[in-house]
Design brief:
alpha+beta, Beta-Lactamase, five-stranded antiparallel sheet, 5 strands, transport, coiled coil
């Protein structure tokens, strides 16, 4: 149940009221206590007290008061107050008796409790759908995060392997260079040795010719 009780008053004098609450609390009595405390500023307001919302609409010298459950929602309650005002003013112009006005208010509250309850349930279903979609999107984001972490790890491993490969390649090139240099040095030593031997062999022949 969304709309628990409603009343219309001129000042503190109640013109029409109806209590649809299933509990033991007499909300009509609560409404009568609230009426003197309602400020005459602001056309429409809402307050929360003792687990209920107290909502009122000011129209000239009239106060339209509605006590609703916290789950009713401000938009639904203010829609009820506006329709309550319009219907009451139409009945007042026809000078209908208080009993007929009370019956009108009872039917209005019952209709909002049945139709409004369906609206609230639909809103709750829509909220659940949005929540499910958010959870699904969050799961996908987290899954993508794990994939990104895996990709970063693989990139780091490839980078390490690349550095290691470059180091090994440099060492191999250095070894080839030193091996080539050692070959060249060995070849030079051999050539120099041959030259020295040939020179040494040729020296006696030159000395014989001179004598």
């Amino acid at each position: 149940m969304l709309v628990l009780s409603a009343a219309v008053a001129r000042g503190t004098f109640v013109l029409c009221e109806y209590d649809a609450s299933p509990g033991s609390d007499d909300l009509t009595e609560v409404a009568r206590k609230v009426l003197p405390k309602i400020p005459r500023t602001g056309a429409i307001r809402s307050y929360v007290y003792a687990g209920h919302t107290f909502n009122y609409l000011l129209e000239k010298d009239l106060i339209f008061l509605c006590i609703a459950a916290p789950t009713a929602g401000t938009e639904l309650v203010f829609e009820f107050l506006n329709e309550f005002r319009q219907t009451y003013e139409a009945l007042a112009r026809r000078s209908l008796r208080e009993a007929e006005q009370t019956r009108m208010l009872r039917d209005l509250i019952n209709r909002y409790n049945s139709e409004g309850g369906g609206r609230v349930q639909q809103m709750e279903r829509d909220l659940e759908d949005v929540t499910d979609k958010m959870r699904d999107n969050l799961g996908k984001v987290m899954e993508r995060g794990e994939r990104i972490d895996s990709l970063v790890d693989k990139t780091s491993a490839l980078n390490s392997e690349s550095v290691s490969f470059r180091s090994r390649a440099k060492r191999y090139n250095d070894e080839l260079w030193w091996r080539d240099q050692r070959g060249k040095m060995l070849l030079g030593i051999i050539v120099m040795a041959i030259v020295v031997v040939i020179t040494w062999i040729s020296l006696p022949s030159c000395q014989v010719l001179q004598t």
